[in-house]
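Entry for the shared binder. Reason: the reviewer on the internal report wants the predicted structure included alongside the sequence.
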Amino acid sequence: MNRELSINVSHFMDDILMRWQERMKEEKRERFFQYMPDEVVDKTSKEFAELMTSNLSASAEVTPEKLKEFAEKVVRFGWSIKFVNKSIEHFSDVTFETLEEAEVINDSNYRTYMKIFSDWISPLRNSIIEAYSIEWERTVSLQKIALQELSASLIPVFDKISVMPLVGTIDTERAKLIMENLLEGVVKQRAEVVLLDITGVPVVDTMVAHHIIQAADAVRLVGAKCMLVGIRPEIAQTIVTLGIELNDFTTTSTLRRGMQEALKLTNRKMVEVEAK
């Protein structure tokens, strides 16, 4: 019966894919089928259909390589796990409906086909979602590492003055990386003033403030001064509400003002030069 199902699905595949794409476009917040080029949509749809039907034949199976390849692609395209689940559900529904309309499935074999579909779709769904989850976790992990490396670099901007822009949430792991890069950079660049720019940090709580204070103390121990810049009004309000003490810091609302203060500390200043 699986062989018969495989033959029938292959026969009606064009119709199944067309109806499946239309149903996927109706999903809320759907972007892939609406905005991607038609050739990309068609190619991905065919690959998805091939994956979905690859275990219908008794001699075929869904290989880990196929699952991994598909998972990599849909994660790259931004499919959520909910969207993946819906795509499997819609493919199953559309296939069943198409075969019903073609009278391949009728009253006499309805229950048999229901069982075949259940045995076909359920394990396949589990395999696809598991592969997707593994790939998603791997992607997120790589993005996290990349973000940590990009957002914890000490950048020399003037002689004796360096800036470290911080982006995203600061947890204990990131704080350790920030501390290491900060101390190594201060010594290597011979910086006398370091500006920690928290413009890109969405939330400053007690734990984040603790990590920043630790970083400032470490900078002082190697003979440099640490300044905190990029304090937005909502961040300032949070710091006051939490009772966080930043008395040992020079703080400014913007990087520009912080740079002016840093120049003063190194006996320099910004001078506007009139164009001739």
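Summary line for the report: The chain has eleven helices and five strands.
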